[in-house]
Amino acid sequence: MNFKECGEFAELTGNQRTKIPQMRIDMNIIKREKVETSTKTLKKYLVKKVQGHDWRFQHEGLKKTDLELRQLVLASESSKRLQRFEIDCLRCEGFRTGLNRISGGLKTFRSLQHLHLNFGHSRVMRDSEAFEISQGLKKRGSLNSVFLNFKWCHDLSDKGFSHLVKALKKSSSLNQIRLDFEQCWKITDQGLRDVGKTLKRFASLQEFYLNLQECTMIRDKGLRSLKEGLIRVPSLKNLSLAFKGCFRISDAGLSSLIECFRKLVYLENITLSFLRCPSVTGEGLKRLGESLQKLPSLAHVNLNFAYCENILDSEFAIPSEMTLLNSLDLNIEGVKEVTDSSLRALSKGLQRQRFLQKIHLSFGPCQSLTDFVLNSLGDAFKELLCLQDLNINFIRCERITGKGLASFGEALKNLIYLKTLHLNFQGCQNVDDEGLASLGQGFERLNSLERLNLNFFECFEITSRGLSSLSEGLKKLNCLQDIKLEFSMDSKIDDEGLMNVSGALKGLISLRNLFLNFNHCTNITDIGLKSVGKCLQKLGCLEKFHLGIVGCVEVTNSGLLCLGEGLRKFSNISEFNVSCFW
Predict the structure, then answer these.
(1) Boundaries of every domain in the chain
(2) Do 172 and 201 touch, CB atoms closer than 8 A?
(3) What is the pLDDT of residues 141-178, one digit of tens each?
(4) Residue 292, SS3?
(5) Phi, psi of 303, rounded to the nearest 5 degrees
(6) Integer Cα distance of 490 and 203 in angstroms
(7) Do the domains spanning 1-187 and 191-196+219-311 agree at the CATH topology level?
């Protein structure tokens, strides 16, 4: 329930004769000086009215919240049947004594099943405050799910972290645990050891999420302790672990974590992030790929090893035993030494995954990848007839040419169920008109495509002729709703190319979001903008429009007026943005 004036809300609730079953309170829109008065008025009515199962309190960025927390928790204590309790105090700075009421409230919620506490970015959250909250958690043995968000609480150490984790031990029926302690720099291996010990208590746990990004004191020892806990939770279906920036973690820690996979036979979703962990090498990534064969039920894989600088020429393969794989997200962007041979095994593994619906692959900047990797991936995609979402990033892989893109475009013809296509070839300076023409030909059978994003920023060999060929393929995308085309920094693109693109787009009557970026294409003039304006007149469903023409020095006010003419008849445009200045 959102409200601006508490008086109006109080009058409304005061006139109601029935009990309120559910309520959500968002106090972000109330001015700071009115918060205390508003909360007192709320308490007066909520003590009598809120008798339901769902209590949510959102209160972001205010400094004086002690009184508010005490009043609101006291009000919620009147609900004996409360099953869900959520408090969102993101960036609040003055709630130390108010936490006593939260702890007391948790002790009285006998039917509580779902708990969500968000104190992220709170500079006053220390071990003593965490201890107060833990005292209430200890009394709740009926919890089904817990989400604790204490990210960016820099003064929280192992002591406070352990208090919170250990307090969950009595909730043996927990199905879902989400712990977000990103950038709590004082958390060490000791904290992870307590997490491992606590996990052993949850035989029925199905989802575990742990975010310790930028907790730079964590070492391999901590991951070994975590493994000892995970290996005792065979019922786990969803596992997400984030250790971005934990530079002390090496292959040894990753290998020990992998060992628990042999027991997690029911695991369906796995997300691992070791972004910017330089001590993790290609050998660790290879072992991870091999270990996935121990998870026959795995459907969703998300692996982030971007900017792990010591991942050299090592193969990563998708085991053939993973017959149920539905989505794959692999990010090794910033790994400069990856080569064609490194990805050969990946391509072969993908060919056997006939039920894949989503693939996100991110590589580069890399000087070693050539057209061979596009050829091998293209061969794999020809077999993935169920694919619906394809996102490929080859940013600044300068050895990739138009020939590689041409073979990739040929493979697209088989993906008749594709709904989302995102290709990023930014900085691939050898991609030319031939590749773009073949890509356009690959669009001819993509009748289900709804979202298209093409990035050819700084591809200097592309000319208006290539854009014209691409436009012929765009005309076939009758179901397209969102399109983003990026061709900035190319002086070889002129009005002819922009006119051909506009001519193709005006036939896409289902288009809702249109993003065109031709910044610093210095040969574009008012003639090109006039064609865009005529295109807009045909797009009756358009809601958002962006045009980037920064650095197009030949464009004048006359061209901009033509764009305005194209929008006169539209009443449903919610966002219109034209960037034309430096």
Answers:
(1) 1-187, 191-196+219-311
(2) yes
(3) 778 999 999 999 999 999 999 999 999 988 888 999 99
(4) helix
(5) -125, 125
(6) 59
(7) yes
pTM: 0.86
Distances (CA, A) of 314 to 150, 281, 322, 400, 532: 37, 9, 21, 20, 47
Furthest-apart CA atoms within the chain: distance in Å: 73
Q: If you search the block for the tokens 């969703």, which residue do you land on? A: 300
Task: Identify which of 2, 157, 153, 27 has the alpha carbon closest to the alpha carbon of residue 87.
Answer: 27
Contact 91, 61 (CB under 8 A): yes
CATH number of 191-196+219-311: 3.80.10.10
225 three-state secondary structure: helix
Token code pair at residue 574: 């919610």
Instruction: Provide the 3-class DSSP secondary structure of residue 157.
Output: strand
**Candidates 3.40.80.10, 3.40.640.10, 3.55.40.20, 3.80.10.10; correct CATH number of 1-187?**
3.80.10.10
Omega of the bond prior to 365 within 30 degrees of 0, cis?
A: yes
Number of residues that make up the chain: 582
| Tokens 């004082």 found at | 186
- Rg of the chain over Cα atoms, rounded to whole angstroms, equals 28
- Residue 52 structure tokens: 């339901």
Model confidence pLDDT, tens digit, residues 53-83: 444 555 444 444 444 555 555 555 555 667 8
Say which amino acid occupies 342. Answer: S
* Gap between the Cα atoms of 450 and 434, Å rounded: 25
Mark 521-556 as b/e (b = at least 16 C-beta within 10 Å): bbbbbbbbbbbbbbbbeebeebbebebbbbbbebbe
Tokens of 339: 């080569």
